[in-house]
Amino acid sequence: MIETLHQTSVSKIAAKLCIVIILAFDVKDHILVPKHVLLSKKDIEELLQKTHFKIEELPQIQLDDPAIKHLEPEKGDIIKIARVSNTAGKSIYYRRVV
Description:
Elements: H1 2-24, E1 35-38, H2 41-51, E2 60-61, E3 78-85, E4 89-97
Parallel strand pairs: 2-4
Antiparallel strand pairs: 1-3, 3-4
């Protein structure tokens, strides 16, 4: 019984520690996470006119994606993602928040 009680206490402490570590880690500052930018309504209109896409045709990104949480997006917003690589240079991607 004491061993089981001890294991339960250790599990609870480990779970709380894990939560603290997750909350302290800011994913947007990680070297492997590309820059994410929330587009303004004007920028969205220009993008759709330039590319002749409909908003529904854009690839999706989840509203609760850790990389965009700090932007406080709403469903239907467009996120611009700028990826940099040694071989392709800078690549721009757009995602619709769902």
